[in-house]
Amino acid sequence: MAEKSFPLPDLGEGLIDATILEWLVKPGDRIERNDPLVEVETTKSALELPSPMSGVVKTLHGESGAVIKVGDPLVTFETPDAEAGIVGTVPTQEAPKRRVRLSVPED
Amino acid sequence: MPDSVIAADGTRLRVIERGPAKGAVVLAVHGFASNSELNWLNAGWERPITDAGYRLVAFDLRGHGASDGPVDPAAYRLTTLADDALQVLDAVGADRAHWLGYSLGSRVGLQVARKAPERLRSLNLGGTSAADPPVERLQAMLDDLGLDDEALRAFATGVSADAPALPDAPLGIPTLLVAGSDDAVAAGGGRTAERLGGRYIELPGRTHANAITSRAFKDAVLENLGSA
User: Fold this and answer.
1) How close, in Å, is residue B105 to chain A by CA atoms?
2) Which residues of B touch A44 (CB under 8 A)?
3) Predicted ipTM?
4) pLDDT tens-digit profile of A29-47?
5) Gap from B148 CA to chain A (nearest CA, Å)
6) How many CA atoms are closer than 13 Å to the CA of B58, on its beta-carbon side?
7) Given an 8 Å threshold on Cβ–Cβ distance, is B47 in contact with A44?
8) What share of residues in chain B are helix, strand, coil (percent, to 5)?
9) Torsion-angle region of residue B146: left (phi > 0), alpha (psi -120 to 50) or beta?
10) What pTM, to 2 d.p., does this model score?
11) Is the Cβ of A22 closer than 8 Å to some Cβ of chain B?
């Protein structure tokens, strides 16, 4: 299993962070892209953020009341290995006998 | 389908429509210093309402959002705002509509219930109680939000000119009031709901500002719409 993480997106109007009001999903939920994900509150207003992908929720980065900065991790999904995102598990290897060039996984 | 409506005095009002063309209309009216996008779309109301088969019609109150903003306070009387809403309903071909309001948008809904109850299928009023916020409180809101806008200042003055009044009860339509437990503006909503023969739902821990995204609020409204 690999993972894919998403940050708190840019909320516009020069806002730098938001407070988590209420999560609308929990770890283990299988959800679709654009399903309601979380309610957040900024100094300007309250927003309902949609899910950025379809998949199984793995980690919610902050409880109700937590302040998250724009750009910091908000939610992590499990992904099948074939669709591994940037945040994944690094395969272990024995010390190579000669120098080996490792290729970076395609995103 | 219009994306704007011209009111009787020539003021242009921006209208947003979503959902099945033949669905029963839910007219969504935002609060003071907000607009349709902030209050409804960004707060996640489109999907629950349209998935349930309703047509969501939201308009920006005069002085707000993408609607025209006259600078004369006299342009913002509560009766004028109510007339604007009825004009929008006429334009989208709705004889009757469900009213979904927040804060000032709820106040306008109560005015429509007073003057033209035959246009309403249900009343769904968030963030309000029996009394209008006085002009000082609206002006203070603008200061807090850092909004120095001539139209909004005129709006605050104009809309506060009329004494608040409730429609005669019973209204005969499903009526729901919803407010955060920490909402100072909407204190007394339970009593108002009782006077109107409606239900009152309180959202634990929510304030005037953050009640608008609440799932419990949305669920309560969907249920009230369905009971009409």
Assistant:
1) 16
2) 38, 145
3) 0.89
4) 999 999 999 999 999 899 9
5) 15
6) 29
7) no
8) 40, 20, 40
9) left
10) 0.89
11) yes
